[in-house]
Amino acid sequence: xxxxxxxxxxxxxxxxxxxxxxxxxxxxxxxxxxxxxxxxxxxxxxxxxxxxxxxxxxxxxxxxxxxxxxxxxxxxxxxxxxxxxxxxxxxxxxxxxxxxxxxxxxxxxxxxxxxxxxxxxxxxxxxxxxxxxxxxxxxxxxxxxxxxxxxxxxxxxxxxxxxxxxxxxxxxxxxxxxxxxxxxxxxxxxxx
Length: 192
Description:
Helix content: 10-25%
Number of domains: 1
Shape: globular
Distance between the termini: 29 Å
């Protein structure tokens, strides 16, 4: 996230501004962080993941949302825009605007050089406080590499990862799978 120099504001002020803004920003501890534009590879990976998950979950009680739905981490007050979110059952929103989701089940982030450390570290630490959150998928956009974290019944998180285009990630909490060949379909990777 890149920092905009602004005085600290309340979450209510952030939401009022954000709902009028033409560009998206994240919010944490009184500060607003402008979100930069995405690369073609990033957008294509997000599109592919949304297509695959939506197709598989079409007749189930789960809904797939992409980049424009804001998520609030209630425990820390972080407002953020994950690349892909899956909600099962009734979505719970912060207020009547129904634009800030509170109960994601699966979150997918497409990594960039500027966000990968944050997505793996501080952001994931905050996501883990969401009670409904069960799986986290991190997808590299510049090479074939996927990290998949799954919450265990005892609260621990188990990581599996792959860099093989013929592998498949099982998103068990929603009964779906992501074939890496589909995730990276039409993505021009360096050296490919």
